[in-house]
Amino acid sequence: MIRVRRFAIIGWFLWLASAPATLATAAPGMALAPAPGMTPGPAILPAPGMAPAPGTAPAPGTAPAPGMAPAPPATPASPPATPASQATLKPGWTPHAGASIDLGGRKRVFVGDPFRVTVTVIAREQVSVNLPTSLDLGDFSLLKAQPDDREQLDGHKTKHVFRLTVAAYKVGTLTLPPIPVTYVPPREAFASGADDPTRPTPALVVTTQKVEQQVASVLANEPHPQLKKNAPPTTILVEDRRMRIVLIVVIALLVGAALGFLIFWLLRNRRRLGPPPPPPRPAHETALAKLRLIREAGYLERGEFKPFYFGVSEAIRDYLGNRYGFDSLEMTTTELADQMRGVEMAGIGYDELVHFLMDCDLVKFAKYIPPLEEAERILAQAEHIVHSTKHIPLPDPEEEDEDDEDDASAGPGAGGRPASTARPASPPPGAEVKAPHPDERWARGAPVTPTEEEPRG
Q1: Which of 136, 233, 336, 350 makes the best surface tag, with the fewest CB within 10 Å?
Q2: CA atoms of 163 and 95, how far apart (whole Å)
């Protein structure tokens, strides 16, 4: 049932579309003619109290209905505005327009490459200049348009610069058509055609010149692209590095041999370069030399006790540091006493050393003026400390054996030791060994250690 209704509705619309329809329109002042076989109906009159529309006149042969006022006369239309082509400018008011192409340093333009078209207009400063909204650039497409860039010139003139970014998608010599520039001068610029102040000032148009631009293709042989001919065979040069490698190896061997010979010569002639530096001076000799200089300086004769005590104290401090291996000059008296507490000293006690340092500090820092005898005692005590603690190296047993052999071979007549003073043979194991008397050791020329010396007064 639903399908039958759909087909009926579709058939009815098709019949209406195919039926001829006659529309008749009557122009003003003309009456519609009745169709054949039709009788005209009664004339339609306006209702009582209604007036006809303004600007319309009653039909001919019809009278206004009773009580209706006659229609007011139609207002005549305003005359048409003066076209811009009839307006005439005074001399000197017409702007000057020109167009140029800026490739940005490129020599050629390829298909699709954007480049700039500059439109320059010079007009008086009272003239309003602008480009149309839509531009017909022919074979060129507008990509971007920058706003007006104005520059004030001399003579009350303004330079208008419009920069357009365009691109071409065809190949060959293309022509940029004249670009229209719209300008509106002031009313006093017109010689005729703009006298009525009630009418707007007409807008005029000035165009630029045509510009041609060659657009190249990305293909080399446009417009008939063909494949390039096959290139002829090319000789390829291969660098022979064998000679370079041989030279590098030979140079490396020569340099290595020269370095080896130089090292061998330096090692062989190392002793010929000069005598070795002398061994460092023993600490006790340096200290005794300083004390001797202090004694000879004459501080005590002049009554200068403070520099005297200061020199004696610094000499002993420097000696203790060099003798026992620590930095003693940067220590205070308390720190130096703590450092020397665990040091074994022969011939002098720990308390004697501490009292010596404190006696020196009394004069150095407490402004104590000692008697002359006490100052001389301090200097003698300093020399006693150096002599009591100085280091005496023991003789080398091998050197003693060599000296004994030389003396035995030389004999008594050759200036050597007497046979009676020769070193006795080693005792057998388990035998009692008696230490020699110091006088016997002096007789043999052997050094005496501090423990074997007599105590000093």
Answers
A1: 233
A2: 18
